[in-house]
Amino acid sequence: DAGVIQSPRHEVTEMGQEVTLRCKPISGHDYLFWYRQTMMRGLELLIYFNNNVPIDDSGMPEDRFSAKMPNASFSTLKIQPSEPRDSAVYFCASSPGLAGDTDTQYFGPGTRLTVL
Amino acid sequence: AQSVTQPDIHITVSEGASLELRCNYSYGATPYLFWYVQSPGQGLQLLLKYFSGDTLVQGIKGFEAEFKRSQSSFNLRKPSVHWSDAAEYFCAVGADDYKLSFGAGTTVTVRA
Predict the structure, then answer these.
(1) Main-chain phi, psi angles of B21, to 5 degrees
(2) pLDDT tens-digit series, residues B2-56
(3) Of A27, A30, A77, A102, which shows the fewest CB atoms inside 10 Å?
């Protein structure tokens, strides 16, 4: 299995621009998670989906952030407009959500976002 | 809500020496517990996990962890570290809502 795939790996953009991060979860996994990692705040859960439906978006920092999962093999995290304080590494993770392996999350390599 | 504390921000250990990383959790029920490792510029890789049963859990790369309910701890150990073990280590606790809460991480430096 290829694991969780994220693109792009690096993104540099200017303040005010729209940024879209992409994630392909492991095939057959029912849960998908978006995290943000910064030095100041560590790893923060932004939102997670179950069977393509958003379950908990309480970690999304503000309305500039939105996430979608149009099908079981693709999700996007969008920031519009972007701000310098959004600079971070964004991770996508997926989980099978099966009895006996309920919460094991498998992480992608991350997208390093820099907003100038 | 569940939470995790990793008391040590940074640990330096000599190659070949033993390593122990501390993790304390807060959760009302029996937790799901995990240790992940993150090498520079990489994603998080699962080292081991505890769901139930034997409280001593074996993981990859020669790591093990012991769940101690009385101390609300899940410390990670390795008897003899290698230079490739230099990384950041995260302890995490999960609940039935499928969410994980991560500790702040412990950075391990291995000196020759």
Answers:
(1) -115, 130
(2) 889 999 999 999 999 999 999 999 987 778 899 999 998 888 999 999 988 889 9
(3) A27
- The alpha-carbon radius of gyration of chain A (Å, integer) is 14
* β-pair type (B106-111, B10-14): parallel
Question: CA separation (Å) from B101 to A9, B70, B108?
Answer: 24, 20, 21
Q: How far is B96 from chain A (nearest CA, A)?
A: 8
Count the neighbouring beta carbons within 10 Å of the beta carbon of residue A54: 16
In terms of Cβ atoms closer than 10 Å to its own Cβ (0-12, 13-18, 19+), residue B15 is middle
Give the chain A residue whose CA is nearest to the CA of B31. A103
Is the previous residue joined to A70 through a cis bond, with omega within 30 degrees of 0? Answer: no
Provide mean pLDDT across the span A53-66: 93
Q: What is the DSSP letter of B66?
A: E
CB pairs under 8 A between A and B: 50
A52 in Cβ contact with A25 (< 8 Å)? no
Do β-strands A31-38 and A10-13 pair in parallel, antiparallel, or remain unpaired? unpaired
Write down the pLDDT at residue B41.
Answer: 83
Nearest by CB to residue A95, choosing from B43, B44, B98, is B98
The neighbouring-strand residues paired with B44 are B38
